[in-house]
Write a structure and sequence with these properties.
single chain, Rossmann fold, Serine Threonine Protein Phosphatase 5, Tetratricopeptide repeat, DNA Cyclobutane Dipyrimidine Photolyase, subunit A, domain 3, 3 domains, five-stranded parallel β-sheet, 20 helices, 49% helix, 6% strand, binds flavin-adenine dinucleotide
Length: 482
């Protein structure tokens, strides 16, 4: 008789390239389980609810019953093994510091309980710790990390197993609603018009992008209006698609694009896209090597940075897109409306919080964690440390984005601003990026009263810039004298 194996699904709600499930299907009869454990942000919780629903339906159609549980995984898995007679637990690794810590303990406990554990690597292209410089140390510069990654073969994705034996016993399972993922507020309802969680929708989205848009990735990826990037980030964050599958299918496209009639930039676009995907690995590798970065600056010098004390009204104005700087407000309103924001705009709104307002980057990362559908501890932490200048290979602190110039450069005809700030739609282009400078007549023609229909800037740019540079100088002096 084949032995029973619990497959513990986590951030890998997919059948394609799922080694824990694949190997279990070769070795025995599968008992599939999902355990709700972490407290996650509101947008992520909404996503997880739909993603789990979709995955459960998929398993149902294959004759499997995905058991839903909540609570401490150690307890749940031990009880489940005892109840079902399972002799092994298989799962795919997660790399967040608390998961690494808990998994170590879990493996020991299950072994003591007589249950064998098999873990697998799948949610990154390269296993953390496997990419090192010549001295055997972690890379601090992305370009060098990327160059090394390019030389290393990425493991091919596994297919969906042809035959899976599911355990037929009826095990008590929570109802999806009992996991209480979706909050009582209706905030999440609007997200449904923008996203379709689940493996099938993700594969369709990826292949549509790969068919056409990937070849124009380098040309348009910095344009916040065009949706020219893959928009795969939440799907990757929830493991609905394997990065290895994306890598291998992209490589096939790269070979094709050499044959097809594409210009030079289009030919380089696939590589440009993969390079961006490798930033995700860079983020996870950093998180594993330097777990303290979740709360503390990667560069020690910034421990003494003189951040401003948070004023709730000002922070709220940033969160809800009421700063008086149209590009910042457009980005923050896009986030509030869709649970996502374009990467270029993330950098600019982040810089504004950290440098114009001098608020600790943790204020921003916490808001992103709650509202982004792609909230991801590694990427979010690296993104914020990049913006604050406190991470490896970051934008230096003294490089302060001017929100007006950034708008002129990346939204030259104001389409992005007008989309998210309809109250400004009648303003002529020149004033769209700094409405407070518009003459009274122009404001009247556009039906805008500054301070009534649209806010005054909450901080003046030149003042904020000087203040940020002087805080930076103060930190440098303190470190010199320390
Ligand atoms: C302050 C800040 C916070 C961020 N927080 C997150 C976050 O919580 N979750 C998240 O997934 N990304 C985060 N990012 C990175 C980036 O903005 C998003 O990954 C990207 O916008 C997602 O869009 P896309 O899927 O269309 O990306 P594409 O351009 O199509 O790239 C493909 C994939 O590569 C990865 N990727 C792309 N850019 C980056 C990057 N700069 N860093 C790490 N991975 C990248 C993502 O998984 C993405 O889905 C943050 C960036 C900043 C500046």
């Amino acid at each position: 008789m084949k032995h029973k194996i619990i497959v513990w699904f986590r951030q890998d709600l997919r059948l394609l390239d799922n080694p824990a499930m694949y190997e279990a299907s070769q070795d025995g009869v599968i008992i599939p389980v999902y355990i709700k454990e972490d407290q996650i942000g509101s947008a992520s919780a909404w996503w997880l609810d739909l993603s789990l629903r979709s995955f459960k339906e998929k398993l149902d159609s294959l004759g499997a019953n995905l058991i839903l549980k909540k609570g401490n995984p150690h307890q749940v898995l031990k009880e489940l093994a005892s109840r079902t007679g399972a002799t092994a637990v298989y799962f795919n690794n997660r790399y967040e510091p608390h998961h690494l810590e808990n998994d170590k303990i879990l493996i020991t406990e299950l072994k003591e309980h007589g249950v064998h554990v098999n873990t697998f690597h799948t949610n990154l292209l390269f296993e953390p710790g496997s990419i090192r410089n010549k001295q055997g140390n972690p890379y601090k510069v992305f370009t060098s990390f990327w160059k090394t990654c390019k030389q290393i073969p990425v493991q091919a994705p596994l297919p969906v197993p042809a035959n899976i034996n599911w355990d037929e016993n009826k095990i008590e399972s929570c109802k999806l609603e009992e996991l209480e993922l979706v909050s009582a507020t209706n905030w999440h309802q609007k997200l449904e018009q923008y996203w379709e969680p689940g493996e099938d929708a993700t594969l369709k989205k990826w292949r549509t992008f790969a068919e056409v848009d990937i070849h124009d990735y380098l040309t348009y990826r910095n344009d916040p209006v065009l949706d020219a990037t893959s928009l795969l980030s939440p799907h990757l964050a929830f493991g609905e698609i394997s990065p290895r599958l994306i890598w291998h299918e992209s490589k096939e496209l790269e070979e094709l694009s050499e044959i097809e009639n594409l210009n030079e930039e289009q030919q380089e676009s696939v590589e440009g896209f993969l390079r961006q995907l490798v930033w995700r690995d860079f983020a996870y590798h950093q998180l594993v090597d330097f777990p303290h970065i979740v709360d503390k600056p990667l560069q020690q010098a910034y421990l003494s940075f003189p951040w401003n004390k948070v004023e709730e009204d000002t922070l709220e104005a940033w969160k809800k897109g009421q700063t008086g700087y149209p590009l910042i407000d457009a980005g923050m309103r896009e986030l509030w409306e869709t649970g996502w924001m374009h990467n270029r705009v993330r950098m600019v709104v982040g810089s504004f919080l950290v440098k114009h307002l001098l608020y600790h980057w943790k204020e921003g990362s916490a808001w992103f964690e709650d509202t982004l559908v792609d909230a991801d501890l590694a990427n979010n932490t690296m993104g914020w440390q990049w913006v604050a200048g406190t991470g490896f290979d970051s934008s230096p602190f003294f490089r302060i984005f001017n929100p007006i110039k950034q708008a002129e450069r990346f939204d030259p005809d104001g389409t992005y601003i007008k989309k998210w700030l309809p109250e400004l739609r009648l303003l002529p282009g020149k004033y769209l990026v700094e409405p407070w400078k518009a003459p009274t007549e122009i404001l009247e023609n556009a039906n805008i009263k500054i301070g009534v229909d649209y806010p005054e800037p909450i901080v003046e740019h030149d003042f904020a810039r000087k203040r940020a540079l002087s805080a930076y100088q103060q930190m440098k002096e303190e470190n010199k004298n320390a």
